Queue: 4 jobs
Job 1
Amino acid sequence: MKFIKSLNLLLVFLFVFSINAQKLSKLEKKIIKQVEFNNDEAILLLEKVVNINSGTLNLEGVKKVGAVFSDEFQSIGFTPTWITMPDEIGRAGHLFCELTKGNINGKKLLLIGHLDTVFEKDSPFQEFTMVNDSIVHAPGGNDMKGGNIIILYALKALQEKGLLKNTQIIVAFTGDEESSGKPLSISRKDLIDAAKRSDIALGFETSTGLKYATVARRGSSGWKVEVTGKRSHSSGIFNKNVGAGAIFELSRILNTFYNEVRGEEYLTFNPGVILGGTQVSFEKSLSKGTAFGKSNIVAQTATVKGGLRFISEEQKENAREKMKVIVAKSLSHTSAKISFTDSYPAMSPTKGNAILLSTLNQVSLDLKQGRVEAYDPGKRGAADTSFVAEYVDCLDGLGALGNGAHTLKETINLNAFEALTKRTAILIYRLINQK
C-alpha cells in the first residue's frame, strides 16, 4: 500500500493547488443535461447488447455485438473499422472507431473497452433481468458492456452539443480481453499502435465505485515447473541409489517458493494445478490432466502450472530469478526445470497517471460526486490498459458499477450509471481541450 498512500498524498497536494479550479461551466451543464436526456436510451441499448451472447469463444456473438456498436459510433461521426484476427489466433477480432477532426487542440484520447464476456453460449446466465428498480442481473453487464455504453453515451452527448471538433479520439473495443488470443504480438498490435498515436488512455473496465479509480494494475504471467526423478521400488527411496523422487522434489520447490519468494508488496504467485506419479499427461488447451502412480513406486515425474502477479517488470524479473535459483538446487537423483510465459504486462503507477487522477477528482468534485482516490492494485486483475501503459498516461476502472463480475450473479447498478456517464463526458471534454 506504500505507493497508493503516496499517490493519494500527491492527489491531496494537487487538489490544494487546484482548489480554485473551474466549476461546471454553462457549456458543461448543457453536456450534463444531454446525458440525462439520453439515459433511458442508453439503458435500452445496454439491455440489447447484454442479451447478445458474446463469450470470447462465441466468435459470431462477439462480431454481432461489435456490429451494434459499430452502427452507434458511426451515427455520431466516428469511422468504425473491424479488425479481423488470423484464423490461427482463434478470436473474433476487434472494433476500432476513430474520430480525427480539424487541428487537434487538446489531448489525443484512446478509450478502451471490450466486447467479449466470460459467459459462453452454454452458460445458464444469458439475459438482462431486473432485480429491483436499480439493480440488474446482467451477464457481462459491468464487465464490461456497461463501460462500453458509458463511453458511447458520453461521446454522444458531446457530439450532440457540437463539442468534438479539433479532436482525435480512438475507441478500441477488443474482442478477446477475457481470454487474449496468442500470440499477443498479433492480438494486441492494433491496440498498441493506437496508443502510440495518443496522449492518454482511459479504460472502462468494471468501476471500483465513484470514490476510486485505477492508476496501477498488476501484470500477470505463467510459470511451469517440470521435475523428473528415478523410478524405483519405494523401499529404496532416500538411499544413495534412488534419491527423493519427483514428487518430493516438486514439494521442496513449492515450499521454498512459499518461504523465500513470498513477501514483496503486490507480488503473488499461485500454483494452479499439480500432477505427479509414474506417468503424467496434461492438456494445455483444457487446463486439465491425468496422473498414474502407485504407492510402492517412486514417482518419476511431476509438474505444476501456476500464475505470477507483479506491479512492475523489475519485480517480475526479480521473482523469476529467485524461482530459477530454487529450482536449480535439486534433491538427489532428481532434476527440474522452470519455464515462464508472458501474458499481461504491469500498469505501473506513474506521476502522469496521478495527474490524470487529479483531473478526474476535480471533475467529480465539480459534479458534487465526492473525492476520487487511487484504488489498491492488489484488488484488481489485469486488463487491456496494461498493454498501452508503456506509451501513454493511463486511468482505468471508469466503467459501470456492479457486483459479482465473472459469476452467475453479476449485477449492474443503474442508479450509478447516469452519474458515471456524466463524469466521463466532462472528463473527456476537459481533456480534449487541455493543452
Job 2
Amino acid sequence: MTWRVAVLLLPGFVAGLTLHEFAHAWSASLLGDDFARRQGRVSLNPLRHLSPLGTAVLFWLGFGWGKPVPVNLYHFRHPKRDNLLTSLAGPAANVLLIGVCLAGMLLTRNSFVFGPRAARSVELAHLLLQFGAIINAILATLNLLPVPPLDGSKIWPCLIPGLKPTFAPKLTSVFVVVLIVLLWTNRLDPLFHGVIRAVGSLTPESDLQKVARLWDSAEASLEARDYAAAERDYTEALALNRWSWGMHYERASARIAQENWRGAMEDLNEAIRLRELHHPGEPEYYELRAVALEALGLRDRAEKDRARAAELRGQSPDADAASQPATDSQPAATEPADAF
C-alpha cells in the first residue's frame, strides 16, 4: 500500500465508515433499541464513528475499522432477527455508497468538458470516486464474512437453532486474531482482488484515462513504425483533448512519416500556437515544421523556422543546422510533450 493510494482511499473510507456505523445505529433505533442513539451514534459526523487506530492502519494495510456501535439485544422484539438486520444495515450502506460513487463517475468522466485547466480537477474527482467505490466494496465484502465479530456472523444464530445471538468474548477474540493474521499475510487478497476487478468493470473510463491509453498505444505504434495506426490513435485522443500541443506534434511526426505534408503542417501550426499561449516556443516544433515546409517547396519559410528554432536554443543558425531532424520516413525521436 503506497501513501498515494492510501490518501486516495481516505475520503471514501471516511465516508463509507461513517455511513456504515450510522446505518447500524439508525436501524437499531428503528427496531426498538435506542442505546446507540443515546450515545450520539445516530449521526453523520465522522468524529463520532472513526477510530484513530482503525483509520491509521489504512495507510499500511489498505483497510481499517471504526468504533463499534453498541447494541442492547433486550430492546429488540426479535433479538436474533433484529440483530441480523441491524448488522446487515452497515454493508448495505456501503453498497449504497458504491452506487453513489458510480453515478458521480458518470458526471466526471468528461475530463475536458470545462477546458484543459479544469481537466486535472475533474479527473481528481473522478479518481476519488473510483477509489471510494473500491474501498466501500472492500468494506462491504469484509464485513459480510461470516466470522465474529464481523456483521456476517450474525446470520448463524438465525440459521442454527439454540445458538445465542452473540458469541462469547473469548471465541470472538480468537476469530479476531485469525482474521488479522489472514489479512496481514495477504490470504484474503484473492477475494479483494476479485472485488476490485468487479468494481473496475463497472466504473466508466474518464476522457483523461482514454487519452493516456491512446497516447501509449500511439507511441507503441510509432516505435513499431506503424504510422497509420499511430495517426488514428492520436486523432481519436485529440477528439477528446484538442488542446494538447504534444499530441498535435506527435501526430505531425506520424503524418510526415507517411509524407502527408499538409496534414503535418496543420498539426504543427496548431501545436506551435497552443504551446506559445502558455510557454516559450519549442525549437523541435519549428524544426519539424521546417521539414514539412521544405517538402512543400516553401524554402524561405522553412529557413525562418530554422532560424527561430536556433534562436530558441540560443544558437546561431549555422550551429543549429547539425541538429535538424531527419527528412526520411522515420520521424525524429522526441520526448513526449505535455498533454495540456
Job 3
Amino acid sequence: MSDPREVRFRGGGFAPSARRGVGLVVFVVLIALAEWGTRSGFITPLTLPKPSDVLATFGELWQSGLLMKHLVPSLTRLLVGAALGVSIGMSVGVLIGLFSYVRAGLVPLVAALFPIPKIALLPLFVIWFGIDEGSKYALIAFGTFTPTVVATYGAVDNVDRSLIRMGQSFGLSWFSIVRKIVLPGAMPGILSGLRISLAIAIILLVAAEMLGAEYGIGAYILQAGSLYDLERLFAGVVILSLLGVVVSTCIGLLEKRMLRWRA
C-alpha cells in the first residue's frame, strides 16, 4: 500500500493572482523592439517613428505648455460626458431590471439605439447643440448611455434568484432586497460594462474633437495627421493609450474596493 499523497488545497477557485510588473515588461519589450527596428532600418521612418523621437516630442509638448492646453479640455469633456451617460445609463438599466413595465417599454428602444454608430450622429448633435462644448458632451454621453444600460440590466438579470428568495423568506422588504442583494450581486457585471463604456467614451472624445475643437487630443492628432508629422501623431496616440490605462486602473481599484466580498 503506497503512502498517502498530500493534495494541495485549491479552495481559492479560479481567482486570478496578481503578477506585478509583467505588463510593464511587455510594454518595455515592445518599445525596445520598435526602437531597434527603426534604428536598424528594418522599419521605415514613414511607417513608424522612433520611440525616442516620440519621447522627445513629449518633452517639447510639456516644456511649451501645449500638453496641458490639449489635455485639460479633453479630460473635462470626457469626465462630463461620461458622467452623464454612465449615471443615467445605470439608473435606467436598474429600472429595466427591476420593473416589468419599464422593461417592456424601454428594452425595444434601447435595442433600436444600441447598434447606431454614434460617430455618425455627430453632425446631428452639432445642429442640435451647436459646434461648441454641448455637442461634444452630448455625443460622449449618448455613446456611453446605451452600453451602460445593456450591461446594467443584464447584470441585474443575472443576480442569483435563490438569494432573492432567501431574502424574501427572511422577511426583508423590497427595498432591502434591492440594496443588500440585487445591487451588490449586479455590481461585477456593471463594472465590467463600465470598462467598455469608458473605452467608447475615449473613442467618441477623439471624434468629437476632430470637428470644431481648437484644443484637445483629437484636435492635436488631426493637426499632426494633416501635416504627416508622425512623431506628433504617435505622441497623441500614446496619450490616448495612457488615458485608457489610467481609466482601466481606476476601475480596477474600484472593483477591489466594492467587490471585496468576492475574495
Job 4
Amino acid sequence: MTMLWIQFIASAFLIVLAGTRLTRSAETIAEHTGLGTLWAGVFLLPLATSLPELVTSWRAAAIFAPDLSLGNVFGSNMFNVAIIALIDLTHGPTPILARVSQRHIFTAAMGIIITCYVAITMIMPISVRIGWIGLETLALPFLYFFSTWLMARFEKRHACQDGAVNFAETGQSLRQAISWFLAAAVIIIFAGTSLADAGDAIALGTGLGRTLVGSFFIAITTSLPEVVTTFSAARRGVFDMAIGNIFGANLFNLVIIFFADAFYTGGNILSVGSPTHLVTMFMFVILTSIAVIGLIYRSQRCFVRSGYDSIAILAGYILGMTLLFLS
C-alpha cells in the first residue's frame, strides 16, 4: 500500500509541474494571438487545465473503474467552483464575484444545464447504443460545441468591452510555447495514467470506494492546474480570466464523459455508475447557482475577507464531501 501512495503522490507531483507549464504555455499562446480575458479563460485555458481530468478519466474507464472516472469529472467540477471561495479569501476586500463581468453567468448556466442533462440520463432505465457508445453520452460533444458557439456569438456582441489579457511577458516565441505545451501534454498523459492506476488500487485496498477516491483525492489532484492558473490570473488582477477558466473548465470536463464512455466496454458508463454521483452533481448545481446569484446580486459586503456568496460556496463544498463520505 505504501508503494501505491508513493506512486499516487509522484504522479500528482508530475501533473502539477506539467500542468503549470501547460497553462503558462497556453497563456503565452493567448498573448501572441491577442485573446481577450473571457476568451482566454473560457475557451483556451480549459483545454490545457482539463487535460489531467481527460487522461485520468479515460484511463479509469479503460481499466473498468467507471466510478473512478465519473467521480473525477464531477468531483473536479465541484472543487473548481470552490476555488472561487479560495480566491476571494486571498484577494479581498471586495468580493470577487462583484468585480467580474456578469457575462460569466452564460457559461455557468450552460454548465448547470448540461450537468442536469447528465443526471437525468444517469437515472433513466433505458440506454440507446450506437456501436459501443451510448447515444446519451454522444450528445455531450454536440451540447458543448453548441454552447461554445452560442458563447462565441454572445462574446462578439461585447467584444469592445473586453481588452487584451494582461499576461506577464514570458520571452517565449509562439513556436516555443507550442513545443512546451505538447511536451507537458505528453507528461500529463503518462502521469495521469499512473495516477488512475494507483487511485484504483488505493480505492480497493483501503475500502474507501472508487466514487469517494475519484471525487475527492483524484479530483483535487487533477484540478491543481486550474488552481495554479486561476490564482496566477487573480494575482495579476485579471479576475475575468480567472473566473472564466473555472466555468469554462467545468463545461469542458462534462465532455470527458463521452471520451470515458468511448473507452469503457462494459456498457453505458452513466448507467453503470453509482447513484452516489448524483450527490456530487446536484451539489455542483447548487454551488454554481450560488455563484450565479453572486454575479447578479454583486454584494459588496464581506466577512473575514470573503463575500457571503464565497462563504456559502465553501460551506456547500464541505457539506457535499461530507455527504459523499457518509453515503
